[in-house]
Design goal:
2 copies of one chain form a homodimer.
Chain A (H helix, E strand, L loop, with lengths): L2 E5 L8 H4 L3 E4 L5 H7 L5 E4 L8 H5 L6 E4 L17 E3 L6 H16 L2 H6 L9 H5 L9 E5 L3 H12 L3 E5 L9 E4 L1 H11 L2 E4 L13 H5 L6 E4 L8 H10 L4 E4 L4 E2 L2 E2 L13 E3 L4 H8 L1 H14 L15
Parallel strand pairs in A: 1-2, 1-3, 3-4, 4-5, 6-7, 6-9, 7-8, 9-10, 10-11, 11-14
Antiparallel strand pairs in A: 12-13
Chain lengths: ~325, ~325
């Protein structure tokens, strides 16, 4: 039987199926000494956020480790550089798609329809003509939706865009089956999408090549009244450039569920006073957790762990070169 | 040539097509004396809000009047009891469907995903675990959507519900073509929909039979954590019952673009302090105006006026018995 060390905060009873096929240990049950004794025999790690107990030194002693399953869709929290050679890492891609896709569309519509602005300061609309106020509302039908990243979440968001009568363009390295979604690649593809789009949803992983992908220059050639939605990772956007852009372009909206990190911790509220801006919409990183509450991410990652325990091929293996 | 009196605030150049087929007069161009002289020869009125110049006495003198076209989708502003006998009235049904449908979905998602709550008081989430916060988020997929009124707006909203993976139930007197929309009628049908739904969108006209349709009793048998969206007319809901229900049921959300009237005028902000409630979302009646800004309602009502001018059958004629 394989040995699996669990460092995720799911209830134990939810993992009963796995305990029949593997020896499962819970990090939170182990003393420092017990953990040290166990390390050389662990085959697999199941992590949510990377546990601080698993230092570089301890990882070096996990000589049997061959597989790491992330409970999160993003794997940028995993210290790829410190993993023993040959260890495969799987993301929880798809486990959060429906719920995060719904949340992205909520952020997009809250921005496009100015719902947040009107509810932060209801009195600002008093005495103004509805016909005048109505001109501030963005209509999505017949507009262009840019989807950056065409994985599980991107596909769900693209589906909503089509249901709303939008033309959909997707940034993706993979092929796209849907005839009515235009796939584009690389920096030139990204620029084309940003220039054409009335609304853009970021659903990319945070990798070496996506960090800082959208800075001052790219923001400046987006449409003046565009909505930019982020349900991926904040670091894909340059924080200072974003703040300046919102200050100077009051019709542009940035709506985000994710926040820039400082010393590995998401800063909420952020360092810059985004919440003071009328064209900003923010939520406290709840899109993924709303899926976790529904139970599907756990089932999705458990399915992969069961495959590993049975010696079958695992899904959603990431390329370490994207992260080291 | 028919004589058409225009009392709507559209630009004159937008109505050029009509002026080739009919004699068009603009209320705002006429002195009191000119208006009085014109009244007996007017065949048709094109109104947006009912103009105060057209008193009961003046209406009685419009002996040739045979048709009233409303620029608004709702016709409850029209004084049916004062119209000369035999005058047909057409609503602008369909002219606002796409835009108001989009807006309804924005209100629904802003409520379901708690986006407004988090942006009114961002600091309230600080230090709380995202997993705990995520449990407050309503996931629409696999839930039930109730659509009250299955006209143009109701159909658009039902389409969004299906795209979001919801089961759709519709309250309608008409037949429903879509196989995956369950039609229900009457008070019993309404009760069934309200009891089953996770989200309800009101897209009914305000008529004698829909005024006060949803009061204390019906609110109390809705789901505790349901979202109720109103893009129709506020008076379909009892104001005081709604306020009390929100106070006592903090997981229930009321999200509205329309407001209760006092002496014929919409009260925004409302008389009761709805904006002080964390489970309320409000916007200053901009769903329709956002469509007006896009130009489609004008084209839609102009098409009907052109039919009238050519002596063809007009569309969207309402039944006065619903309003007198």
């Amino acid at each position: 039987m394989k040995k699996i060390l669990v460092a995720a905060s799911f209830p134990k009873e939810a993992m009963r199926g796995l305990t029949e096929l593997a020896e499962v240990f819970w990090l939170r049950d182990l003393s420092e000494g017990e953990l040290d004794a166990l390390l050389p025999s662990v085959d697999c790690l199941f992590v949510q956020f990377w546990p601080q107990e698993l230092t570089r030194e301890r990882l070096a002693r996990m000589t049997r480790l061959s597989f790491v399953q992330s409970a999160l869709a993003g794997v940028n929290h995993i210290p790829f550089g410190d993993l023993p050679p040959g260890v495969r890492v799987s993301s929880n891609a798809g486990g959060y798609s429906d719920e995060v896709g719904e949340f992205a569309w909520a952020l997009l519509l809250s921005g496009a329809k100015r719902v947040v602005r009107w509810n932060r300061a209801p009195e600002a609309s008093v005495g103004r003509s509805p016909l005048e106020l109505g001109r501030d509302v963005i209509v999505l039908r017949d507009g262009v939706l840019g989807v950056l990243g065409y994985g599980g979440i991107g596909r769900v968001v693209a589906g909503f865009g089509k249901a709303f009568g939008m033309k959909v363009m997707a940034l993706t390295r993979n092929s796209v089956d849907e005839e009515d979604v235009e796939p584009l690649v690389g920096d030139a593809g990204l620029d084309t999408i940003l220039k054409a789009s009335d609304a853009v949803v970021i659903a990319l992983p945070l990798t070496n090549s996506t960090r800082g992908l959208i800075g001052k220059d790219r923001l400046e050639f987006m449409k003046r009244g565009a909505i930019l939605v982020n349900v991926a990772r904040a670091e894909i956007i340059d924080q200072r450039a974003m703040y300046q852009h919102l200050l100077l372009n009051t019709d542009f909206v940035y709506a985000t569920d994710v926040w820039w990190t400082k010393e590995g911790k998401e800063m909420y509220p952020p360092e810059l006073p985004f919440f003071g801006l009328g064209n900003f919409v923010g939520s406290p990183h709840v899109a993924g957790p709303s899926a976790a509450a529904a139970g599907r991410p756990l089932r999705n990652s458990l399915d992969n762990l069961l495959r590993f325990a049975k010696g079958e091929a695992v899904s959603n293996v990431v390329d370490p070169a994207d992260y080291v």
